[in-house]
Amino acid sequence: MTRIRDLEITDVAFGGKGVARADGKAVFVPYVIDGERVSATIVRTHKKFFEAELENVAAPSLHRVRPRCPYFGRCGGCVYQHIDYEHQLAVKWRQAKETLRRIGGLKEPPMRPFIASPLEYEYRNRITVHVRDGVIGFFRRESNKLLDIERCSIGLNEVNERLAKLRASHPHDGDYTLRASGAPRVFTQANEAVAAALLDLVDRMLDSAQGTLVDAYCGAGFFSKRLRPRFERVIGIDWDQHAIALAWEDATEKETYVAADVEAELGTRLSAIAPPSHEENIAVIVDPPAAGLSKATVQCLIEHKPGRLVYVSCNPATLARDLAMLNTAFRIDSVTPLDMFPQTAEIECVAHLYSEEVAGDGERG
């Protein structure tokens, strides 16, 4: 292993590792901040880059702070606890913008300011811990081995109380999702304050929309329930039958929820809503998993071209990939990042798109 002294960290890449250069190659170093000078040891060599481990920070950034969690640096969850929160947002904002440029081909992405989390720690309403051979915790960084965890610093106190009870019960090997009381056993956002901000944001984006709303990957109706008063008809689609059953529980006459594969169902529903001349009265929300939209789903949206499209993404890379294709039929009005998971590398983004017909009418948000 080779030690490199006096590396200048020029950026922090998506995923959390700092970027430097040595011997004509990029060097990726964890737990550093742009602007710092550090020493690091090369641990893996690739054709175009090195991976290194941090040895010493010779010139620390003014944004460097003491991590609150005793497991930081060993646990695979958080990567930014050494950075003050304001600079975390700046780093993530740049990452999202550069990803849209590099993968999405957007020269000047229409970025909006970051929506921050009111809580930097103790915000998660659920965590999933793993139990193997008496070890109870999370996976170690870049490893399939477990790190024993007594408390998660980004989990709510109530969630950590449940972790303490689990540890005291000497559980069998397995995976255990620990939720705050009242949290449904279907997918919901883990940061309730930022989830509320997300809902407000999408509400504002569609404030002039009417007609029909199609909520793809709708879950239990997170967006549908908030937006249903302004639409004549709401259709929710999700593969999770339990979530769809919950959505039906308080559904009004204007709501329809379908347990089906989104890729297979979306085109059928859009075709049945209205003739092409009325597609400007259709709004679609897509909130896919990290893998993003399938090519078939993207082509379906391009073919039917709803008047308004809101794309909620938990992965800037797949969002950028999909926007590169959607940009041929839609005008991208804005991309707003939200910090659903402070201290981690995760970035939530919401892209707001119009069909060319609607954008041509001057209805921009």
Give me some keywords for this one.
365 residues; alpha/beta; 6-stranded mixed beta sheet; 9 helices
Describe this structure in words.
- The strands form three sheets. The protein has a seven-stranded mixed sheet with strand order 13-12-11-14-15-17-16, sandwiched between helices. It has a six-stranded mixed sheet with strand order 1-5-6-4-3-2, with no helix packed on it. A four-stranded antiparallel sheet has the order 9-8-7-10, covered by helices on one side.
- It is 27% helix and 28% strand.
- The relative contact order is 0.12.
- The termini are far apart.
- The mean pLDDT is 93.
- The chain has 365 residues and is α/β, with parallel strands linked by helices.
Oligomer: single chain
* N-to-C order of helices and strands: EEEEEEHEEEHEHEHEHEHEHEHEEH
Low-pLDDT segments: none
Strand arrangement within the widest β-sheet reads 13-12-11-14-15-17-16
Question: Strand count, sense and closure of the main sheet?
Answer: 7 strands, mixed
Strand content: 25-35%
Provide the residue-averaged pLDDT.
Answer: 93
